[in-house]
Amino acid sequence: MSVIVPSTAPAPSNPPPPRRPGAAALDRIGHPAPAAEPADASPHAFPDGGTWRTEIPSVEGPEALAAVLKESTRLDVPVHRVSQGSGVWMLTDDEITEMVGACAERSVELCLFTGPRGSWDIGAATRTDSGGAGLRARGHDALAGCVEDALRATELGVRCLLVADEGVLWTLHRLRTAGVLPADTTFKVSALIGPVNPASYAVYEQLGADSLNVPSDLTLAHLTEIRRVSRAPMDLYVEAPDDLGGYVRMYEAAELIRRGAPLYLKFGLSRSAGIYPYGAHLREHALATARERVRRGRLVLDLLARHGADGGMSPLGSRLPGELRRFPATEGN
To answer: 188 forms bridges with which residues in the sheet?
Structure first.
């Protein structure tokens, strides 16, 4: 019986570039494919050397989290981060503690939204066609409520907070700098106020953002422009919820990574009713959509693998963004 001896030859230093979708078949009929410009690629990465991580959004409580973790095991979908959209104030202490523990067991980062926000406030402007002040925190009391959420969540072990207001972000960053919030707390800017140009992206980084959701309708060129001014991690829905446009960009996943790294691939769900603020009346819908978001992730990972573009994922358990630029958080600002 022959024995197969594993090869000890070193791996090639220059692996072949990822295959472009449909390229070989189109080449057979003489249809040209655009060449990737090396100058378009992001020069940045996460501090662990990876260029992309994964995120399952809209995980609204312990039961939905359990469904996500179970489905991610069944479908072999690596998960770096789960995020919640209803807000800290919609969870009990016991629910937060349960979610913190479940995520710690799997080395998954848990990110909870700070609230309240304008869309749930008594002001009428957010109901107008213009959207008014949108998701911003209206007045001192709303700002203070977001601070209270941050304090409560971090005391219960949460180390990533979602924000939808520049003033809230700057205030929480100053509290982090002052030691009121744990130094390893990270702040994630919501897609609902995501920056759409390089200058605004850089400003959010300076205000304390550790990762930034950008709208899912930004072009590939827009991502390259952002990467010329900032290395702050970017979050992008490969499939966006309907209230964010419903865009499905699965076939662009490899190019999104190449242009936007360091990048969180977010597996959202279009054609699905919203669940914020979540409660038991939405239980079945929330659990079904949580499982389907994981399946959408499997589809994207399979696509990357088929194209030879699945390398460069951060190790599971990675969460910190690396050194970023900040405005001076001096007293009195």
So the answer is: 162, 211
